[in-house]
Amino acid sequence: MDAVSRIEFALNAAFSRAEGPSCPPRLAAAMRAAVFPRGARIRPRICLAVATACGEDDPAIAEAAASSIELLHCASLVHDDLPCFDDADTRRGRPTVHHAFGEPLAVLAGDGLIVLAFQNLTRTAHVPQRLAGLLTIIGHAVGAPSGIVAGQAWECEPKVDLAHYHRAKTAALFSASTAAGAAAAGAEYDGWRLLGERLGEAYQVADDIRDAAGNADELGKPVGRDIALDRPSATREFGIAGAVQRLELLVREGIESIPACPGAADLRALIMLEATRLLPKGVARHAA
């Protein structure tokens, strides 16, 4: 199977363990609506790409890690869209979970996805050393002091360092994706964190650019939220052209940081291809 098919199969397998007669039907539906239909799946695809580059020897471990990371990402989107944060009406071109199911179920659906992600990792229990590494990597990327929960919390602070905010809110889960991919393949994983950090920061900068210069219909979610919510962003700090330059620098630094591995060349090519898809149409030319 290709990477996307592997991810979708693994996500559906995870849901098969969570859904059942004892699960409240609307909770199950809300959790599923948060994950399907799929988004870009960029984090789990990066995880699988790194595992492949490192010579994975047990695909089931890489698939468990990748799908768990995607479940955590989707949980963060459910919570990010809530009225107490972004108060977003749409996500991926559809009503957000709290609009479709109500705010209480949206909170519970996000919580349920977080727990499901860690339950899903137990599929790797047949290799306990790798499970321990994956739990450490992914747990660190989610909570405090510098995971995605902390990243969201920085929006509640009166003064924010933009790079610190981006590293926690977005880069933490990207760093987990690259490190987990290596760990899933049985490789040393600390050297892979920098690639994820740079890609995560680049993705957040691109998201800031899309929010400032993108089209809501094309993106499937509201735009202009950073200004409306007085939230820190790369475009507010650097301008559109400066933000594009920042993105390009981060991608270059990420590629240069890739450790020696059997599939390094293919991984570099994949990252370059993904980077070209990050900006809204016409922005790069306009900024140049």
Looking at this protein, list some descriptive labels.
288 residues, mainly alpha, Farnesyl Diphosphate Synthase, two-stranded antiparallel sheet, 15 helices, 2 strands, 69% helix, 1% strand, globular
Helix content: 55-70%
| Main sheet characteristics | 2 strands, antiparallel
* Count of individual helical segments: 15
CATH 4th-level superfamily = Farnesyl Diphosphate Synthase
Q: What layout of secondary structure does this protein have?
A:
Layout: H1 3-18, H2 25-35, H3 42-53, H4 59-80, E1 90-91, E2 94-95, H5 97-101, H6 103-121, H7 128-142, H8 148-153, H9 162-184, H10 193-213, H11 216-219, H12 225-228, H13 234-256, H14 264-276, H15 283-287
Antiparallel strand pairs: 1-2
Helix pairs in contact: 1-4, 2-6, 3-4, 3-9, 3-14, 4-6, 4-7, 4-9, 7-9, 9-10, 10-13
Written overview of the protein:
This protein has 288 residues and is mostly helical. It has helices at residues 3-18, 25-35, 42-53, 59-80, 97-101, 103-121, 128-142, 148-153, 162-184, 193-213, 216-219, 225-228, 234-256, 264-276, 283-287, and strands spanning 90-91, 94-95. Strand 1 (90-91) and strand 2 (94-95) form a beta hairpin. The radius of gyration is 18 Å and the shape is globular. The N and C termini lie far apart (39 Å).
